[in-house]
Amino acid sequence: MLKKLTNKKGFTLMEMLIVVAIIAILVAIAIPTFNSALNKSKVAADTANIRSGYAAVQVQILTEDGAAGTYYLKKDGSVVTTDPTTNAYKTQGKPAAATEIAGISVDAWEANKSVTYTVADGKVTKIEVK
Fold first, then answer.
1. Are the CB atoms for 122 and 76 separated by under 8 Å?
2. Do 114 and 130 contact (CB within 8 A), yes or no?
3. What is the Cα–Cα distance from 108 to 55, expressed in whole angstroms?
4. CA–CA distance, 62 with 79 (Å, rounded to integer)
5. What's the chain's average pLDDT?
């Protein structure tokens, strides 16, 4: 007579489906968290770059005796008075709310926008991301 195999090895289809479902749920929870963290890091980098541009404008104001006008932030962190078409700094993130930089409120911005600083009376009066 043939003996029945009673020693089963491996997983059943149902067990495999449950494992796959659990992994899918964990991935669905993790992806938005990672995207949120990535956007926060991009916004933090943008804010730091806007602050460094503000410092560069302050240096320009001091060296040019408070020259009024509009300054544009470049990729290398410097500022110029003429609009740099190819070398302009472009934002990467999208903040949820306005940000304050050196006492100046900067409205929330979209990604891929340029940064400008308006100078009047020897001080920066406005920072725009557009």
1. no
2. yes
3. 20
4. 14
5. 90
Nearest to 93 by CA among 37, 27, 24, 53: 37
Q: How many residues does the chain have?
A: 130
Distances from the Cα of 73 to the Cα of 27, 31, 34, 100, angstroms: 39, 33, 29, 17
Q: What is the pLDDT of residue 4?
A: 62
Residue type, 95: P
- Indicate if the alpha-carbon torsion angle 17, 21, 27, 32 is positive or negative: positive
Report pLDDT for 5: 59
CA distances from 50 to 3, 20, 63, 68, 105 (A): 78, 45, 20, 19, 12
